[in-house]
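Re: that chain you flagged

S.,

Sorry for the slow reply, it's been a week of failed gels. I finally had a moment to sit down with the sequence you sent. For the record, here it is as I used it:
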Amino acid sequence: GVDAMDWAYMVLRMYTRWAERKGYACRVLDIADGDDAHGRSQIKSATLEVDALFAYGYLKGEKGAHRLVRISPFNSQGKRQTSFASVEIMPLLDETSEKEIELTDKDLEITTMRAGGKGGQNVNKVETAVRIVHKPTGISVRCAEERSQARNKERALQILKGKLLIVAEEQNAKEISEIRGDQVSADFGSQIRNYVLHPYKMVKDTRSGCETTDTASVLDGDIDDFLSSYLRVSS
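Prediction finished late last night. Pasting the structure tokens below so you have them in one place:
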């Protein structure tokens, strides 16, 4: 619904602002826009790339469901609404690591489409966007940021391999071919953090217990305390 898409946009902005605060290079590789409502941007999903030393190590604990409780800005009766956003974190593989992960053509379903949205001359005219589905697991990735179809395919494969690497680690699989598709979860994952804006203000991590009442700063990317507290309890 509109509340969930609005929350997804807020989460994307939170991580973008975190990267900007740290001086990290970041860009959106793909975004599925929702319907604008009440002048607010909304998204169904997005893929954000953060290119920085140790970025994956800092952010890997962010995987899971992020829960928002607030008075819905879209509800004329002013009712409290709970929304969830699912976050996935995967490493940006270097060329050497990427070559070590071999995928066969028969396991991939590759489709092209128009990128859609706002952009340059190619948008909505040429099928530059690429979606790749790993058939054994059902894992799907899409890339539309690059100007050429070949480059989008290359980036999509890189993201897919990063996803498969994480799933393999979770399933203790030594090879990508050992991943069991029936064990690849399609749910939101475990709830890791609550963002309460009503009836009081509080952001609290369910694992480390780290909390703050400064919800505005957190949603503006000030999440270092949450990242470090998770790393401490998980080490």
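What I noticed first: The CA atoms of residues 167 and 179 lie 7 Å apart.

Talk soon,
D.
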